[in-house]
C-alpha cells in the first residue's frame, strides 16, 4: 500500500505542474502583450526625440563619468544603474581597492551595486555572440515572467483567477514598468518577493526563507521582504506551528543581505566606509524622509521654479497614488504580510535620499498595493478592462520615453 501511494504521488506531481503552468499562461500572455505595447510606444517617442535634437545629452553615466546622449530606446533600458550592472556582468568586480578602471572610475564603486543580478547575467555573457547587454536582457526577461507568475499566484490565492490576471496586468502598466525589461534588478527582486510572499501564505517556510535570503543579494531594500518573512516566521514559531521550519526561515532570510554588506564593507575598509561611498558618490543615504517631505511640500506650495517641473509633480502624484492604494489595501483586510510588505517598501523608499525621478522605480516592487485596482478591474467587462489596460500601457510607454529623452532625468 505504501509503495502504491508513493507511486500515485509521483504520478500526480507532473500533472500538478502542468496544471499550474496552464493556469498561469493567460496572465503571462497578458503581461507580455502589455509590455511589448508599452515598449513600442517608448521606442516611437525615443525616435521622435532623437530626430528633434540628435545632440541632446540625456543623463550622466556614472560607470564612465560621462554624459550620454541617445539613439534608441536601449538608452532608456540601459541608463544609470543598468550601465553598472552591464559593466559588472561583462567584467566582474575587478581591481584592488584604490585602483581605477580605464575610465578613471574606482573599482570599489562597483561594490555598491548588489551582485545577484549581474552574477546571473555573467554566464550568459560568457557565451559566444552574447554581449553583456543581451545577457542582462535575458535575465530581466526570465525574471519578469517569473514575477508575473508569482503575482498571478498571489492574486488567485487572495481572491480568484481573474484577479490574479489583473494583478499581473496592473504591474505591467505601472509608471516605471520599463525597468522590468531593461538592465535593472526590479524584475528579479519582484520575482523573489512574489514567490517568497506566496510561500509565506502557503506556510512553506524553507522556500520563503531561502528566497528572502537571495533577495538580500539583489538590493538593499530587500530589508522590507526580509523583515516580513522573518516576522511571519517568528509569529509561527511563537504559535508553535510547522515545527522547526519557521526557525530555519528566520535564519535564512537575512543571510544574503548581511553577508554581502559584510563582504563589501571588508573590501572598502569597514561597514561605515561602505555607507560613506554610497552617500558621497551616489547621493544615497537614510535621511528619515527629510528630502522627500521637503520635495512634497515644495511641489504642493510651489515654493520654487524647480518645484513645478513636470518630473517633480508627476512623481509626487505617483507617491500620493501609492499612499492611497496602500491605505485601501489595509482597509480591504488583505493578508497582513502583503500590507506590511507594501508599508515597509514605502518607508524604505521615502525615507532614503534619492532623486525624485527614481521614486516610481523604487516603489515598483511593492506590487501588493495593485491588488486594489486589480480587484476593481476584475469586476469590469472584458471589453472595458481591455480598453483601460491598453490605454494605461500606452501611458506607461509614454512615461518611459518622456522621463529620459524629454525630461533628461535618471530612471
TrEMBL record:
One Pfam family matching this protein: PMT_2
Entry-linked InterPro entries: PIG-V/Gpi18, RgtA/B/C-like
Listed transmembrane segments: 28-50, 129-154, 161-178, 222-238, 244-263, 313-330, 336-356, 386-406
Main localization of the protein described in the UniProt heading: endoplasmic reticulum
Listed GO biological process terms: GPI anchor biosynthetic process
Membrane-related topology note: Multi-pass membrane protein
GO cellular component, one term: membrane
Pathway given in the UniProt record: Glycolipid biosynthesis; glycosylphosphatidylinositol-anchor biosynthesis
Location(s), subcellular: Endoplasmic reticulum membrane
GO terms, molecular function: alpha-1,6-mannosyltransferase activity; GPI mannosyltransferase activity
Chain ranges of the Glycosyltransferase RgtA/B/C/D-like domain: 115-243
Stored PANTHER family: GPI MANNOSYLTRANSFERASE 2 (PTHR12468:SF2)
Protein name in the entry: Dolichyl-phosphate-mannose-protein mannosyltransferase
Lineage: Bacteria, Bacillati, Actinomycetota, Actinomycetes, Micromonosporales
Amino acid at each position: 500500500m505504501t509503495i502504491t501511494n508513493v507511486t500515485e504521488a509521483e504520478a500526480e506531481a507532473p500533472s500538478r505542474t502542468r496544471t499550474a503552468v496552464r493556469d498561469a499562461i493567460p496572465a503571462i500572455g497578458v503581461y507580455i502583450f502589455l509590455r511589448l505595447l508599452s515598449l513600442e510606444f517608448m521606442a516611437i517617442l525615443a525616435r521622435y526625440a532623437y530626430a528633434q535634437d540628435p545632440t541632446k545629452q540625456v543623463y550622466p553615466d556614472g560607470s564612465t563619468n560621462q554624459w550620454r546622449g541617445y539613439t534608441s530606446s536601449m538608452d532608456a533600458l540601459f541608463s544609470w544603474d543598468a550601465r553598472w550592472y552591464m559593466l559588472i556582468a561583462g567584467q566582474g568586480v575587478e581591481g584592488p581597492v584604490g585602483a581605477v578602471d580605464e575610465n578613471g572610475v574606482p573599482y570599489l564603486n562597483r561594490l555598491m551595486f548588489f551582485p545577484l543580478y549581474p552574477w546571473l547575467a555573467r554566464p550568459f555573457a560568457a557565451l559566444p555572440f552574447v554581449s553583456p547587454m543581451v545577457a542582462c536582457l535575458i535575465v530581466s526577461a526570465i525574471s519578469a515572467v517569473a514575477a508575473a507568475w508569482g503575482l498571478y499566484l498571489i492574486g488567485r490565492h487572495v481572491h480568484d483567477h481573474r484577479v490574479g490576471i489583473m494583478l499581473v496586468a496592473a504591474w505591467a502598466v505601472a509608471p516605471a514598468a520599463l525597468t522590468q525589461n531593461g538592465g535593472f534588478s526590479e524584475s528579479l527582486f519582484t520575482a523573489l518577493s512574489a514567490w517568497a510572499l506566496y510561500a509565506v501564505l502557503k506556510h512553506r517556510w524553507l522556500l520563503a526563507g531561502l528566497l528572502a535570503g537571495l533577495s538580500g543579494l539583489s538590493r538593499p531594500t530587500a530589508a522590507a521582504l526580509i523583515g516580513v518573512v522573518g516576522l511571519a516566521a517568528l509569529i509561527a514559531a511563537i504559535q508553535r506551528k510547522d515545527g522547526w521550519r519557521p526557525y530555519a526561515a528566520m535564519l535564512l532570510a537575512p543571510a544574503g543581505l548581511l553577508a554581502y554588506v559584510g563582504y563589501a564593507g571588508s573590501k572598502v575598509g569597514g561597514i561605515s566606509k561602505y555607507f560613506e561611498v554610497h552617500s558621497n558618490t551616489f547621493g544615497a543615504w537614510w535621511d528619515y524622509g527629510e528630502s522627500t517631505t521637503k520635495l512634497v511640500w515644495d511641489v504642493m506650495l510651489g515654493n520654487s521654479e524647480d518645484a513645478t517641473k513636470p518630473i517633480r509633480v508627476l512623481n509626487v502624484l505617483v507617491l500620493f497614488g501609492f499612499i492611497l492604494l496602500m491605505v485601501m489595501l489595509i482597509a480591504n483586510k488583505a493578508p497582513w504580510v502583503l500590507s506590511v510588505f507594501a508599508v515597509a517598501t514605502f518607508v524604505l523608499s521615502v525615507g532614503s535620499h534619492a532623486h525624485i525621478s527614481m521614486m516610481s522605480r523604487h516603489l515598483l516592487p511593492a506590487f501588493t498595493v495593485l491588488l486594489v485596482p486589480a480587484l476593481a478591474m476584475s469586476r469590469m467587462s472584458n471589453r472595458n478592462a481591455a480598453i483601460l489596460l491598453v490605454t494605461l500601457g500606452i501611458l506607461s510607454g509614454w512615461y518611459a520615453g518622456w522621463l529620459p529623452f524629454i525630461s533628461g532625468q535618471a530612471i
